[in-house]
Amino acid sequence: MKLSFIRLILFVTTLFITTLVVNMAQAETFPNKPVRILVGFPPGGMADIVARALADRLAVHWKQTVVVDNRPGAAGTIAADLLVKAPADGHTLLVILTNHVILAAVKPKLPFDVIKDFAPVTLVGDSPLLIMANPKLPANNLAELTGLAKAKPGTITYSTPGEGTVHHLSTELLSSNLGIKMIHVPYIGGAPAMMDAMSGVVDLNLGSPSQALQQIEAGKLKPLAYTGLKRSTLLPNVPTVAESGIPGFQTALWAGVLAPAKTPKVVITQIQNDIKQAMNTPDVREKMNKLGIDMVNSSPEDFDQYLKAELNKWSSVAKQANIKSD
After folding, report:
1. β pairing state of 35-39 and 204-207
2. How far apart are the first and last CA of the chain?
3. How far, in Å, are 23, 94, 310 from residue 50 at the CA level?
4. Percent of the chain scored above 70 by pLDDT?
5. 216 & 268 share domain
6. Is 20 domain-assigned?
7. Containing H/E element for 83?
8. Going along the chain, which residue ranges are E strands?
9. To 5 degrees, how large is the angle CA 295–CA 219–CA 251?
10. Would 13 be classed as within a structural domain?
């Protein structure tokens, strides 16, 4: 019995040392071939912009080719599924947006588990949303919007880039907090959704401050509130939702980086540190600031907790608003 116990201890010790050596070797040689950053959306959007900013900087730092691979379709699930099936060595990464967890909140069946099948690397940045109105709408802030919606229930319309987006769920969360009900008009993309708010086809739009800035300055849209916890540097005179009567309210279109599950922790840590260095360069910071993206860099552990909290948050909103997707 004693001999068997000693053999067990020796086996466990050997296994631990072997794993440690392998992980150290992987970290020392990473990356040893080109790195691919998957993006589940077409070029030009937030995920693509973040991925390309990272690719340019990481390629120099790693002295390896870093390729951005756009695989749009199925709200990002095509790219995510490719990552799940990729080798867990850090050479394939994925830039995700808020919809990664929202999909799990509104869609009953996905080809993967949005938490268990991925290794969180870091949260990169977030871009809170702007609630804006057609200039003719007789409401200039959330208090006036609430009064108008209650006086004319079921008549105020709002546009978003689509059903089940963070824009859609954010407005439902806002409406729930304000005690009002508005009519959702989904579009395919943010540009047409914003244009119809400008023309008066719909009353409100939830969108990006950077994309709306020119239209606001021209008087074609008027901002009501900002969904960040602090005011936007692009529109410092626009109050936050939290300032407007809903303390703690915050929603955003955020971007983060995932690796395949079972990627060695030492490799994840290296990638996270290298991403932090890449995103802190002056040119990248300036570019993100102009786009209204607030830079964030979290540890893998913090990002894991953030993903779980976001999943719980949006699952609750989707359930309460009865938002489902086939």
Report:
1. unpaired
2. 58
3. 28, 11, 20
4. 91
5. no
6. no
7. helix 77-84
8. 35-39, 66-70, 92-97, 118-128, 130-133, 157-160, 183-186, 204-207, 222-226, 252-260, 294-295
9. 30
10. no
Any idea what DSSP says for residue 75?
G
Query: Are 286 and 151 found together in one domain?
Result: no
Whether 89 and 114 map to the same domain: the answer is: yes
Say which CATH number the domain at 80 has: 3.40.190.150
Say which residues have a Cβ less than 8 Å from residue 98's Cβ, sequence separation at least 6.
166, 252, 253, 254, 310, 314
What pLDDT does residue 21 have? 46
**pLDDT exceeds 70 at position 1:** no
- Please give the Cα distance from 10 to 197 (Å, whole number): 69
| CA separation, residue 268 to residues 13, 90, 91, 93 (Å) | 24, 7, 11, 10
**Helix-helix angle 265-279:2-29, to 10 degrees:** 30
Q: What total of structural domains would you count in the chain? A: 2
Q: How far apart are alpha carbons 117 and 262 in whole angstroms? A: 9
Tens-digit pLDDT profile for residues 293-312:
999 989 999 999 999 999 99
Provide the pairing of β-strand 294-295 with 222-226: unpaired
Angle made by CA atoms 191, 196, 197, in degrees to the nearest 5: 100
Last residue of a domain, one of 208, 226, 244: 226
Domain that holds residue 91: 31-127+253-321
CB-count exposure of residue 195 (10 Å: 0-12, 13-18, 19+): middle
pTM: 0.88
